[in-house]
Amino acid sequence: MTARPRLILADQQRTAARAQLFARIDQVKARLAPGALADDAMNGIADRATRIAARRPMAFLGAAAAVGFMILRRPVLRWLSRRRT
C-alpha cells in the first residue's frame, strides 16, 4: 500500500520538474531572441560610449565626427559639388 503515495509524489515531482524545465526554456528563448540580443548589444555599446565620452570628450567628438563623415560622405560630397556649380 505504500507504493501508491510514492507514485503520486513521483508524479507531482515530475510535473513540477517539467513545468520548471519549460519555464527555463521560455526564458532562454526570450534571451536569445534577435531583438533581445540587439537590445543587449546596443545597451552595452551605449554604456561604453558614455563612459568614454565622459573621460575624453574631445577624442570622442572627433571619432564620432569621423564616423559620421564616413557614413555621410557621398551625400555631403554631392551637396558640395552641387553648391559649387
Can you offer a commentary on this structure?
- With 85 residues, the protein is mostly helical.
- The protein is built from 3 helices and no strands.
- The chain has helices at residues 3-31, 34-55, 57-84.
- Helix 2 (34-55) crosses helix 3.
- The longest helix is centred in the first third of the chain and has 29 residues, at 3-31.
- The radius of gyration is 28 Å and the shape is elongated.
- The model has no long low-confidence stretch (mean pLDDT 90).
Q: How confident overall, as mean pLDDT?
A: 90
Morphology:
elongated
- By DSSP, the count of extended strands is 0
Q: Roughly how much helix do the residues carry, as a percent range?
A: over 70%
Layout of helices and strands:
Elements: H1 3-31, H2 34-55, H3 57-84
Helix pairs in contact: 2-3
Short description:
This protein is mainly α. The chain has helices at residues 3-31, 34-55, 57-84.
Features:
single chain, 85 residues, mainly alpha, 3 helices, 0% strand
